[in-house]
Amino acid sequence: MVTEKYKIDGMTCAACSSSVERVTRKLEGVKESNVNLTTGLMTITYDDTLANPDKIVAKVTKAGFGAEPYVEKSKKERVLEEEDAAEEAKKIKRRLITNIVLAIPLLYISMGHMMPFPMPLPRFLDMEHSPLNYALIQLILTACILYNGRNFYLVGLRTLFKGHPNMDSLVAIGTGSAFLYSLVMTIRIPSDMMAVHNLYYESAAIVVTLVMVGKYMESRSKGKTKEAIKKLMDLAPDKAVVLRNGDQKEVPIEEVSQGEYILIKPGSRIPLDGIVIEGLTTVDESMLTGESIPVEKAVGDEVIGGSVNYQGSVTAQVTRVGADTTLSKIVKMMEDAQGKKAPISKLADTVAGYFVPAVMAIAVIAAIIWLLLGHDLSFVLTIFVSVLVIACPCALGLATPTAIMVGTGLGANHGILIKSGEALELSHKADAVVLDKTGTVTEGQPKVISILSKSMSEDEFLRIAASCEQVSEHPLGAAIVEEAKERNLALEKTEEFQSITGQGVRAVLSGKVYYIGNKKLCEEQHISLRAYEEESGKIADKGQTPMFLSEQKEKDRDIEMLGIISVADPVKATSKEAISKMQHEGIKVYMLTGDNKRTAAYIGQQVGVDAVIAEVLPGDKASEVERLQKEGKCVMMVGDGINDAPALVQADIGVAVGSGSDIALDSSDIVLMKSDLRDVEKTIRLSRATIRNIKQNLFWAFFYNTCGLFLAAGILYAVSGTLLSPMIAGLAMSLSSVSVVGNALRLRSLNL
Q: What family does the entry list (predicted)?
């Protein structure tokens, strides 16, 4: 079996991607075919003894789309591609602005006389005095608007003729019918002045303009996942300091080979994955792992490209380069996950696939029947156009986007930023929510939890500890200093300061020597822990980090333990309530973390999750999500770190908390701007309400169209001799659209 990617051109909606999947899956030897509309990529797995690239391309081309094998682009090629896309977006925007400018006078001319206070027109454009001029000016304005929206006709009609109608086909048929009918009426004006009352130019023009607005907004959001990948790739520096023949040389990372030695200076980003062979340091891996507390690195420890070196200068031997680095693998996982199609229902496209051919068949059959019954061409044309106009799929086209627009707007009002209609649609199916611990369930910033001293007050103990740590760059030290500031404690000037890598600090205050750090520091300095051993064990059991403060009062004397200050990443105040609400909705909640099992179990018990998945490596989070999906669950992943990005993309719905990294925000489908987990449950309730609304809209749109079809086809004329005019058909069409929009607006009253 071979798995390949193909770039697909000419897709405009979900019906297009479904068509490409359908035709390629019918090819002999094809096991699986998934098309991602956002990226325009098809991932196909096939038996290369039965199928080949030529057959695949030919099959897609026959369906009315373009296809070519996808080739990974260099950084320079990606930049050029982005520039081309930006230029194309500018062209679309210019066409849209032009259409809006043209639509304003068109509406004024065509609808002004219908207002309660008729709007004046020059005599040469007045409908009563100059009907032909009145029609011709509308024809010219509409023709310009339709030309700017020509892609709807080029794509819609092409896919229709290929047997794969899509939403563009609906727009093309509806607006095209209205325009052609109006054109016929315009031609009849010199011989029949009353024909001027049967013009529908503005209907065709306004529908095309509004759909163009929607398409433009959609195109602007398509680059989000690409931005996330670009930011990930930018984490790794372009150059590295390599040690060659005893000299330091700064070279592009592409020129660094596996096994070479690189120098990593304090404050710089680590260029490639490697093993420390000399030096001690503290590394901030939060950009990749999401864990807020820096990791101590000594000889033999692994460092990850893209992470930040804090204090010490170290030498590392490169272990992975190019596509094998941890960062490159994360990027690859994101791209692979993007190629997997979400199992989302496309009701409007499914209905349209059958509805459009059926309407056209009814229009033709009705016209032929009345022609055979002896009626003239004008009568037959009226029947034909009335059927197409009353069955105009505008309501079907509006059913989903209007509800989604109102739903996303309501979400935004509550601090829930939903990036796409797909995310809003799919959220109602979520039955498993996976929460990343750090920054999602917890605050993501270390804080002082407790202070224990048997020889002095809390404030005095904290004042000394903070005075020692005030020049430290370590996050745990910063947490102690921040706590002292919150208590308005006056700190002493540090006379001497020494950072002991991997252990803590030594500081001199008013001539007194103090040590503050971890258990390893106490062991190295021969400081007895006996007085606080039991308490430190209890602190560790709670997943907190104990920091020991001790004083050496005189030179060469034993160092006296003063007490313990515990620092930890505290649980958010709303986490427990949020998880309880999700469980009340029948959702199983998982907590995912790289922490050890003891710490994770304690926090999981605190917040009441259903299951804890601990000691998960950064690259394995997406695999854990995939495992749950294979169990048949619809997974919503909630996270905030860069390491969560592949899991956010892999999940059916990715949710990022607003305080998270830019990569997580860009990789997600939904962003919680308030960083409040309670909004996850609100999102699911909002999605369920929106889906109900969409189904109602589709029902009413279909109901109106079905009833209207029989009336427009001449049933009423056969019974009572009354012929339904296209004007009444147009009114019915408008009513169907109004009912759909009105029903969608009801969502605004939903109490989240």
A: Belongs to the cation transport ATPase (P-type) (TC 3.A.3) family. Type IB subfamily.
